[in-house]
Design goal:
The chain has about 100 residues and is of the alpha+beta class. The chain contains four helices and six strands, in the order βββααααβββ. A hairpin with a 2-residue loop joins strand 5 and strand 6.
């Protein structure tokens, strides 16, 4: 079961890390840190827009950020954690 959180009655969950997500995440981590870097990482991993994430109370944000760090930690040197899945015309293909 994937970790989830709610904002304004909308539920978001941490997605499987596909190749596209992995490379997007690497690009975020490689650039210089900004005020929104943490939000960009969580947006990449969950699909929750940054504007929406900023509505979270600070204590809830800390829990979401902690889970994001766990997800990133799972990727460190673990090629099996990456789900090389692509979707074409509504059909999912694994590489």
């Amino acid at each position: 079961m994937k970790p989830t959180f709610k904002i304004n009655k909308e539920e978001y969950s941490f997605k499987d890390v596909t190749l596209r997500t992995y490379y997007s995440l690497r690009a975020i981590l490689a650039k210089e840190e900004t005020k929104t870097s943490e939000f960009e990482i969580v947006e990449c991993l969950t699909g929750c827009p940054i504007k929406t994430l900023k509505q979270l109370p600070y204590s809830d944000w800390l829990m979401v950020w902690e889970e994001a760090n766990v997800q990133i930690g799972k990727l460190s040197g673990d090629a099996d954690a990456i789900r090389p899945i692509i979707e074409l015309n509504g059909i999912k293909f694994g590489l």
